[in-house]
Amino acid sequence: MVATGQQGHQPFVSIWSTKTCETQIILPEIQQNAVSCMSFSPNNQLIAVVSLDKDHTISVYDWKMRVCISKSYGGCKRILGIYFNDINTDDGSNVGLGLVSYGDHEIRFWKNISTRFPSSIRPVLGENGSMQNFLSGAQFMDQSVVGSCDGYIYVFRDESFLLKVKAHTGPLTAMDVCYSKKQLVTGGKDGSIRLWTIDYTCLKEFVLESILESHNTNVRSVAFNPHGTHLVVGTRAAEICELSIDEGTRVRGKSLVDAHAIRQLWGLASHPTKEECITSGDDCTIR
After folding, report:
1. Per-domain residue ranges for the chain?
2. In this structure, what DSSP letter does residue 34 have?
3. Which of 82, 109, 106 lies closest to 98, judged by CA?
4. What does the pLDDT look like over 159-206, one tens digit per residue?
């Protein structure tokens, strides 16, 4: 199942099947201005939706029942991402699900999300951290991590700031955790992808310039496959490729998606007899 949102007039959230491409559920409320980000809960029962209104409203739905179970003021600053995390007590026992939202110079940890009155805490970063744009995030074992604009992984346990780890040169734009929860992958504007253990030792590094022939290898998204053996990577040049973690090469030797990636496409002609076409664009290539 996939959830998609939109911008424009009366934006809504649709949940649909990847097998049939048919819409299964449309969430009951129209969002305001746009749907800026969403996240499923680990048990897939809940979905958190952030609207691009002046309040940056965060709504949590039981999507199968089409019921909104909580709605809260997200803050005056734009939210760039949200995900569910586990809330633990001081003795280590789990007391349920919370949310982590991050974005324009702000991180918030949310509790009581299944009630009418969710509450949030903004962590204190102290001298070791700096409040800035935070661009990516994930739940990694019992820790919440977010990626910063200056290339660091900020690590939290509950809402307490533990440490930061230098991961990339420039903005850290993408994160994902493998299904076994034992490895973290990060991608950055520097065009590199790095694998990390729970003690934040870098296991492997992939430099996309040596793997892809691309106009812009800025990593925009990255994800593990279910077995943790491959990565799928999206770049700023509108390319999607699959990488083998062991071999560090593209699977099948080519990208899954490849296109003109800079500004506009100007030329298009179809072959008179073959099922082929030729294109040209502002990236100065003919394809």
Report:
1. 81-281
2. B
3. 109
4. 999 999 999 999 999 999 999 899 999 999 999 999 999 999 999 999
Contact assessment for residue 158 and residue 110, using Cβ atoms and an 8 Å cutoff: no
Cα–Cα distance, 185 to 193 (Å, whole number): 7
Q: CA torsion sign, 62 to 63 to 65 to 67?
A: positive
CA–CA dist 35, 58 (Å, integer): 10
Which amino acid is present at 256? L
Both tokens of 172, joined, read: 């850290």
Instruction: Determine the Cα–Cα distance for residues 50 and 57; give it in Å rounded to an integer.
Output: 6
Sign of the dihedral defined by the CA atoms of residues 179, 170, 132, 31, in that order: negative
User: How does pLDDT run across 7-42, given as a tens digit for each residue?
Assistant: 988 999 999 999 999 999 999 999 999 999 999 999
Helix or strand holding residue 156 (H, E): strand 152-157
pLDDT tens for each residue of 83-117: 999 876 555 544 679 999 999 999 999 999 988 88
Q: How far is CA 38 from the centre of its chain?
A: 9
From the list 219, 232, 239, the residue with the least C-alpha distance to 285 is 239
Fold of domain 81-281: Methylamine Dehydrogenase; Chain H (2.130.10)
Long-range pairs of 125-133 with CB within 8 A, sequence gap ≥ 24: 125/154, 125/161, 126/161, 128/161, 128/163, 128/164, 129/154, 129/161, 129/164, 131/105, 131/106, 132/105, 133/80, 133/103, 133/104, 133/105, 133/171
User: Which residue pairs from 250-254 have beta carbons closer than 8 angstroms and sit at least 24 positions apart in sequence?
Assistant: 250/211, 250/212
Overall residue count recorded for the chain in this entry: 287
